[in-house]
Design brief:
GO terms for molecular function: DNA binding; DNA-binding transcription factor activity. Keywords: DNA-binding, Transcription, Transcription regulation. InterPro entries: ArsR-like_HTH, HTH_ArsR_DNA-bd_dom, Metal_resp_trans_reg, WH-like_DNA-bd_sf, WH_DNA-bd_sf. The chain has 136 residues and is mostly helical. A three-stranded antiparallel sheet has the order 1-3-2. Strand 2 and strand 3 form a beta hairpin. Helix 4 packs across helix 5.
Length: 136
């Protein structure tokens, strides 16, 4: 395969995670592709919550929340801690928290590709690139 910068390509290849790690990461990102699961995780940024309270917070059935939590738990995104008969869910670790917080920060300052023209025009800074030339 021909390359322009063979040294850089070699460096990238050497630092590439294993196939299994890439597949695991892809699975986690796939989980984050469903809005209700993301809403559950955002709710958990404020601290541990039980299924009933999560369901009330995001206006979803307890069954749907339980199913989503089962998937998130299987991929080590959330953890469960039991106190008697009540299970409280938390964000699994600081990496997951950081990922969510960075994602929220990112969407808070970017213009969405699927935004309408009026929304894009409103968000543009006339002193920089013309709105019709923006690339995200």
């Amino acid at each position: 395969m021909r390359t322009i910068d063979a040294e850089h390509v070699a460096l990238v290849r050497a630092s590439m995670p294993s196939v299994e790690d890439v597949a695991d990461l892809s699975d986690v990102f796939g989980l984050l592709g469903e809005p209700n699961r993301v809403r559950i995780l955002i709710s958990l940024l404020n601290g541990p919550m039980c299924v009933r309270d999560l369901a009330a917070a995001i206006n979803l059935s307890e069954s749907a929340v339980s199913h989503a939590l089962r998937l998130l738990r299987a991929h080590r995104v959330v953890e469960v801690h039991r106190t008697g008969r009540v299970a409280h869910y938390t964000i699994a670790d600081s990496h997951v928290r950081d990922l969510l917080e960075l994602g929220l920060e990112h969407v808070g300052h970017t213009i969405l590709i699927h935004a309408t023209t009026a929304e894009t025009d409103r968000d543009c800074d006339p002193g920089t690139i013309p709105c019709d030339q923006l690339q995200v």
